[in-house]
Amino acid sequence: MANTADIRSGLIIKVDGSLYSVIEFGQNKTARAAAKVWAKLKGVDNNRTIEQTWNSGETIHPVRVEKKTYQYLFKDDTGYSFMDTETFEQITVQESMIDAPRFLKDGQEVIVLINGETDQPMGVELPDKIVLLVTYSEPGAKGDTATRTLKPATVETGAIVNVPLFVNEGELIRVNSKTGDYVERVK
């Protein structure tokens, strides 16, 4: 068993029969009362976000999570299909379980979080930074580079990313999959 000292970001715990991922956490100390540990939790098997408070040292129930490499295959009416790169077994997950589905492209490798107790997929994580091709972008105005002005650009997955004026159609860019922000141009 674990206690509140083991809480960290990304930890998946069971609260009231549901699974939650720790988004952020902290500790409140007062002069008279015992320390309290709080956490903001995002539902893994539901779409709820809650805040939970425990007394310092109280028992929590973490869930064993395995991370496996899968390859994105396609999307259809049943959801997004992925294939295990070792066993070639295929799974289908719903869009709500993927952290940034708008940046998924065919053949891309992702990490699938598997519940160690039930062997069911709990979520899909994309790499932090993804290289994408710009398929459409308006040309930038010449000489308008003194400020950090951004323009919308459509990438190969259909997502729209704000990019600097010097980025043109047909170029490769690196995008942060967590925030959706432009990082750099790829040569």
Compose a concise summary of this entry.
The protein has 187 residues and is mostly beta strands.
Question: Could you explain how this protein is built, in words?
Answer:
This protein has 187 residues and is an all-beta fold. It folds into 3 domains: 2-60, SH3 type barrels, CATH 2.30.30; 65-125, Nucleic acid-binding proteins (OB fold (Dihydrolipoamide Acetyltransferase, E2P), Beta Barrel); 129-186, Nucleic acid-binding proteins (OB fold (Dihydrolipoamide Acetyltransferase, E2P)). Helix content is 0%, strand content 52%. The strands form 4 sheets. Strands 9-8-7-10-11 form a 5-stranded antiparallel beta sheet, with no helix packed on it. The protein has a 5-stranded antiparallel beta sheet with strand order 14-13-12-15-16, with no helix packed on it. It has a 4-stranded antiparallel beta sheet with strand order 2-3-4-5, with no helix packed on it. A hairpin with a 5-residue loop joins strand 8 and strand 9. It is flat, with a radius of gyration of 21 Å. The relative contact order is 0.13. The model has no long low-confidence stretch (mean pLDDT 89).
Which descriptors apply to this entry?
five-stranded antiparallel β-sheet, 187 residues, OB fold (Dihydrolipoamide Acetyltransferase, E2P), flat, SH3 type barrels, 16 strands, mainly beta, 3 domains
Number of helices: 0
Any idea how many domains? 3
What sequence of helices (H) and strands (E) makes up the elements? EEEEEEEEEEEEEEEE
Quantity of strands, as a count: 16
Largest sheet: 5 strands, antiparallel
| Helix-and-strand structural type | mainly beta
